[in-house]
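[Primary structure, fold]
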Amino acid sequence: MGVKSIIKASELQRSSGKVLKRAAIGNEHLVIVRAGYPVAVMISFQEYEALMRDRALAAQHDLVRTLGREAERQNVNEADLTADLEAEKQRLFQEIYGS
């Protein structure tokens, strides 16, 4: 986790190269403020990728939990789902490639 630093938008405008370097390799989380209000955050690309990966995993986890609850509600088990999936794959194969 990087160190949180606050910089003014005017500093970013004046010294963009230095500010980018601080975020990219200085392990800093730069909160950019304008007129005293935070407007943006600058982090390294590696941290951004990790954040996006964590968000995607959390969304996938939520989806799996939701699907699991819906399957339970409809009283569907894994064997039924697997059989339905296999039947649909065969139907689609027939539709695309014929007999």
